[in-house]
Predict the 3D structure of the following.
Amino acid sequence: METQVLGLSVDSKFCHRAWSAGFSGINFPLMADFHPKGEVAKKYGLWLEDAGISDRATVLIDKEGKVLWSESVGPDGARQPMELLEKVKSLV
């Protein structure tokens, strides 16, 4: 489907390494929005200033960098992988 999954969080690369090890490794890149903390999250309107963390969200972006769809599930929210797959299918 010509897609690329990327993970992005305000945690450091060291936290990412430990987190992915808990899943026996993962097969997509994890990016650290660590310093300056939350700069990318702020650009997408996902930075929660009072909490000092980013919201948990999924953003689908096309090859030209245009945001096609986004969904925020809150810091404790869960994503539904099959629903996301259907959303990707509907947009490509």
In short: Residues 43 and 67 are 12 Å apart (CA to CA). The longest strand covers residues 67-72.
